[in-house]
Specification:
rod-shaped, mainly alpha, 74 residues, 2 helices
Length: 74
C-alpha cells in the first residue's frame, strides 16, 4: 500500500537520485522507497543487537525443595 506525502530534500540529492533512477531504469518513487526501507531495516537490526540478556550461574538447581523448607512450622 502506498500513501502520498510531500518531502523537502536537497536539490543535489534529488538530481543524483534521478540520474540513478534513469540509469537503473526504475522510478524515483521506487528508489526512495527502497532507500528508506534499507535505512529503517538497518536501524531495526541495530536496536535489536542492543538487547542483551545476561545470565548468571545460580549454582546447583534446588528442584527438591518443599514448602516446609521455606516456612517454619507454626
Amino acid at each position: 500500500m502506498l500513501t502520498r506525502t510531500t518531502l523537502r530534500i536537497k536539490t543535489n540529492l534529488k538530481r543524483t537520485a534521478e540520474k540513478i533512477a534513469v540509469e537503473e531504469n526504475i522510478t524515483l518513487q521506487y528508489l526512495f522507497n527502497q532507500a528508506l526501507e534499507d535505512y529503517l531495516n538497518t536501524k531495526v537490526r541495530k536496536i535489536a543487537k542492543k538487547i542483551v540478556f545476561k545470565t548468571h550461574n545460580l549454582g546447583k538447581p534446588l528442584d527438591n525443595l518443599k514448602r516446609r523448607d521455606f516456612y517454619s512450622a507454626l
